[in-house]
Amino acid sequence: MNHLVVANWKMHMTGTQASAFLDDFLARVLPDDVDVAIAPPFTAIARVGDRLRGGAIALAAQDVFWEQSGAYTGEVSPPMLTDAGCTYVIVGHSERRQYFGETDETVNRKARAALANGLTPIVCVGESGAERDAGEALARVVAQTRASLDGLGRDGVARVVMAYEPLWAIGTGKNCDADDADATMCAMRASVDGLRDARILYGGSMKAENVAAYARKPNIDGGLVGGASLDPAGFAALILAARQGMR
Ligand code: PGA
């Protein structure tokens, strides 16, 4: 399977800014053996989806609710995402867990709903700095992984993309050592049946200068990229560097 690089734009980019990004980014030559996805905020998703339709770059959402439709003000359903052109959806990002009350249980419901609707969930896990300092990082990540994937079955698990994002590395410029991340992701693979066949991404201060070190590790299949995905030239450089580093 190809490596996968996902742009997580978070709460950045108006529709107008997203269009300007794509004017530049889509004119660049990218390797055809690295899969790329862009996750815009909901307000830009239709516009970005229209531009990406039929092309090599996939559309992702940053969150989803698990019901198909109904009286859930403010929420967005899996069929709405597939209709907009999404093939991926991020679930359980640490910012959603931290600021919006996501739990392993809600992440699990969202992952199930995504799969049931033909979307590939990108399920995020990761330990805090305090958990790492206490020597609990691996146990925390394995527990989150198991709970988030509970009941998906071997086939469902193999279709998921996991993202290991240590919280202390997100947006801090302090990326996790690649060997260290690889060891954690190796343990994740062993923790749930089916994960040996799934892609696992690293996320946390990934950039063009450090992506190759991750891409060559046996358990790392790409990256979930925040800050370094907001500039079209920089994001294209990151994808090219990932290709060069690929094992
Ligand atoms: P960052 O964010 O690349 O800005 O550290 C990654 C993420 O939160 O997905």
How far the N terminus sits from the C terminus, by CA atoms, comes to 12 Å
Count of individual beta strands: 8
- Model regions low in confidence, pLDDT < 50 over at least 5 residues: none
- Looking at the structure, the CATH topology is TIM Barrel
CATH homologous superfamily placement: Aldolase class I
Largest pleated sheet: 8 strands, parallel, barrel
Overview of the molecule:
The chain has 11 helices and 8 strands. By secondary structure, the protein is an alpha/beta fold. The protein has a single domain (3-245), classed as Aldolase class I (TIM Barrel, Alpha-Beta Barrel). It has an 8-stranded parallel beta barrel, surrounded by 7 helices. Strand 1 (3-8), helix 1 and strand 2 form a beta-alpha-beta unit. Helix 1 (15-25) runs parallel beside helix 2 (42-52), helix 1 (15-25) crosses helix 11 and helix 5 (104-116) crosses helix 7. The longest helix has 14 residues, at 178-191.
